[in-house]
Amino acid sequence: MSKLLFKLRNVPNDEADDVRKLLADHQIDYYETTAGNWGISMPAIWITHDEQLDEAKRLFDAYQAQRTLTIRTEYARLKKEGKHETLLGRITENPLLYLIYTLAVILLLYLPYKLVLEIVEKLQN
Q1: How many domains does one find in the chain?
Q2: Which of 18, 26, 23 minimizes the C-alpha distance to 3?
Q3: Is the pLDDT of residue 125 over 80?
Q4: Do 79 and 97 sit in the same domain of this protein?
């Protein structure tokens, strides 16, 4: 029976490709499920043969540890150079989008407040 190795929802393409290559390089049989047309199914990588699951998990854990170290090192380097991504940087990159989001939040907070005030006024009259 197939066993789940790795859920692919919100996983970067390069990471998913690395895991596929890792499994193929070590001749571990696997298949992949997608999120489906509506995105409600579980995209994942499944190990076909139970006897290969332990080796696949060992390889995957080693890969994840190495990837974590690599990503953290890269982030530290970018931060040291002042090139890391910040909230202010994102806002200045696309200010119109953030203005629209801010207005939407204000509207969503205002409408229920206004509704409650109108109900209270009607109850007082």
Answers
A1: 2
A2: 23
A3: no
A4: no
What CA–CA distance (Å, rounded) separates 85 from 100?
Answer: 21
pTM: 0.71
d(CA 40, CA 28): 27
Six-digit token pair at 78? Answer: 């970018």
The Cα–Cα gap between 48 and 31 comes to 7
pLDDT digits (tens, 9 = 90+) for 90-108: 999 999 999 999 999 999 9
CA distances from 10 to 23, 27, 39, 44, 105 (A): 20, 26, 12, 11, 25
Half-sphere exposure of 113 (CA within 13 A, CB side): 6
List the alpha helices (DSSP H) in the chain. Answer: 13-25, 53-81, 87-93, 95-124
Spell out a b/e string for 13-42, using b for 16 or more CB atoms within 10 Å of the CB, else e: eeeeeebeeebeeeebebeeeeeeeeeeee
- Greatest alpha-carbon pair distance for the chain in Å reads 77
- Quote the domain boundaries for residue 44: 1-84
